Each structure stands twice: as C-alpha cells, then as structure tokens.
Automatic annotation (TrEMBL):
Keywords: Membrane, Transmembrane, Transmembrane helix. It comes from Vreelandella sedimenti. It comes from the Bacteria. This is DUF2909 domain-containing protein. The chain crosses the membrane at residues 6-27, 39-58. It holds the Pfam family DUF2909.
Length: 63
C-alpha cells in the first residue's frame, strides 16, 4: 500500500516537473537555467520511479 502511494507521488511530481519545464520554455529567456534544472529533476524522478517499480515487483508487492 505504501509503495503504491509512493509510486503515485513520484509520478505526480514528474508531471508537475514536466509542466514547470513547459512554462519555463515558453516564458524564460535564452540564458535561463531553470529549464535545465527542471529536466534534471525529471530525470532523477524517472530513475527513482523505475527503481521503485522494480523493487515492488522484486519484493512481490506489485505482483
């Protein structure tokens, strides 16, 4: 149960990071680094999400 909630929270955080990246892409000037920071967060969250899903299947909690 807790693992599923954690996976959902990480997925929602990824969607929020994606939306923030879109806003930064549209509104910021060329020299802004916020878009790159948003991409870094999204990559990190994606790695965490994959690790949680793999752990969930390995431990039998998502099987």
């Amino acid at each position: 149960m807790w693992l599923q909630l954690l996976i959902a929270a990480v997925f929602i955080a990824m969607v929020i990071s994606l939306a923030m990246g879109a806003v930064f892409l549209i509104r910021d000037n060329v020299s802004s680094r916020r878009l790159l920071l948003s991409l870094k967060w999204r990559i990190g969250l994606a790695c965490l999400l994959m690790a949680l899903i793999i752990f969930g299947y390995w431990s039998g909690q998502l099987g």
